[in-house]
Structures are given as C-alpha cells and as structure tokens.
Design goal:
alpha+beta
C-alpha cells in the first residue's frame, strides 16, 4: 500500500508527497532528513492522507495535487 500525504509547514505552506511507509517518512521529515523544502520549514503536521494500491496511482495523484493552487489544496484538506 502506498500513501499520499500533505503536510502543513511552519510557514503555513502545504507539502505533498508519497511513501510506502508513512510513519518512517514522517520521522525523516521531522528529524530533518526528509526533503530540503520541509527541513527549512519545520515543524510540520500531517493534515491529509490517502491510500493507493500501487506507486503509479500514488504518483499520478501526487502530480495532480501538486498542480493545484493552494486554495484548492486547502479545500481538500478541510473536506478530506
């Protein structure tokens, strides 16, 4: 199972990513070993997740969401 996740960062920006192991990836982000973007905007909190059966569908959904403006992402988080 693959997980798509959205993090809210300290500057109120939203970061979207995918992983096979959500807890491990969150720990990487929180310890500063995740992405450079997140590392420079800690702390972070998970505000949205989805499960996908395979990497391909998770990647497609990640690309779709990353293409959205912030208002649309906020609606997903709020209604998710």
């Amino acid at each position: 199972m693959w997980h798509l996740y959205i993090l809210r960062l300290s500057d109120d920006s939203l970061y979207t990513g995918i992983t096979k192991d959500l807890e491990r990836r969150l720990e990487e982000h929180r310890s500063g070993d995740g992405s450079k973007y997140v590392r420079s905007r800690l702390p972070c909190e998970v505000v949205y997740t989805e499960e996908h059966e395979d990497r391909s569908s998770a990647l497609k959904r990640e690309a779709e969401i990353k293409d959205w403006n912030k208002a649309r992402k906020e609606r997903l988080v709020r209604n998710g």
